[in-house]
Design a protein that fits this description.
- With 301 residues, the protein is α/β, with parallel strands linked by helices.
- The chain has a single domain, classed as Aldolase class I (TIM Barrel, Alpha-Beta Barrel).
- It contains 7 helices and 16 strands.
- The strands form 4 sheets. The protein has an 8-stranded parallel beta barrel with strand order 3-4-7-8-9-10-15-16, surrounded by 5 helices. A 4-stranded antiparallel sheet has the order 5-6-14-11, with no helix packed on it.
- The protein starts with 5 loop residues before the first strand and ends in a 13-residue tail after the last helix.
- The structure holds flavin mononucleotide (FMN).
- Flavin mononucleotide binds next to strand 4.
- The site of flavin mononucleotide has 24 residues, from strand 4.
Length: 301
Amino acid sequence: MVNLTVDLGGLRLKNPVLTASGTFGYGHEYADFMDLSALGGIIVKGTTAEPRQGNPYPRMAETPSGMLNAVGLQNKGVEHFATEIYPTLHGLGTEVIVNVSGSSVAAYCAAAERLADLGKIHAIELNISCPNVRQGGMAFGTDCTAAAEVVGAVRRVWPRHLMVKLSPNVTDIVAIARAAEDAGADSLSLINTLLGMAVDVERRRPALSTVTGGLSGPAVRPVAVRMVWQVAKAVKVPVVGLGGICSVRDALEFIMAGAMAVQIGTANFVNPRIAADIASGLADYCRRESLTSLDEIRGVV
Ligand SMILES: Cc1cc2nc3c(=O)[nH]c(=O)nc-3n(C[C@H](O)[C@H](O)[C@H](O)COP(=O)(O)O)c2cc1C
């Protein structure tokens, strides 16, 4: 018998495979392709206190082994989520986690406070890669003091599981991870996208309207595995690994590096069933290797 359930700091998941924010809509969009209840959880689109238009086009560019995006957190705001989306999410048979973004501490808190009214949302994932408008646009997640400030403030208004998603665009990921843990994170997810840029040589201008954007996909995986390995050794809270996972083998890299669970992002655009396939593939792997649970190989490296 294989037991794939994981306890993510009090948040119980039926298996360790989640879908990553911004790559799986609200889940419904994928319901024709797969049984959503096969997933450990769905992390929905980045949600902000107020509606956001997102950035002008072009805001996506294909790159070797990945993609650049500058979608800019387009969403209709937390009130729309609460009144229009939330009522439709019951009965999916999996945990729904809301990714929360903002450009000020007050904006993060406003979104989290509204979500606290929604009893079936058991966890939020705080995206601290957003620019801190009051401090000149530096991302909250690239400075220990700013990261601790936003995590601590949300901790005071959000009563349930608080996952904090770290940016890889830093020199010392462990310092930021510790700051988030000390400020009250229940788990840490990493990595968000790596800052990149591509040039459209025909038009002689940047490929994205915003000039720079976030790199994701298999190209970033070794960076993500390295950071997960560093952080998992340094903190007590569970770590959720992501970045370029496209197969069971890729997911196992993160688990062996110390991740309690994984998220699947860009790979959903290539194969919309990939997350469910990886969940069932992890069970097959355990059977083949005569493991009763992934605990036997977690952090083994
Ligand atoms: C189109 C797109 C939109 C994204 N939107 C969000 C978002 O709203 N919030 C967030 O925290 N991360 C967002 N991400 C980052 C992913 O959740 C993930 O951290 C990153 O892409 C690395 O994983 P991957 O290589 O498996 O895609 C987005 C990524 C892509 C490609």
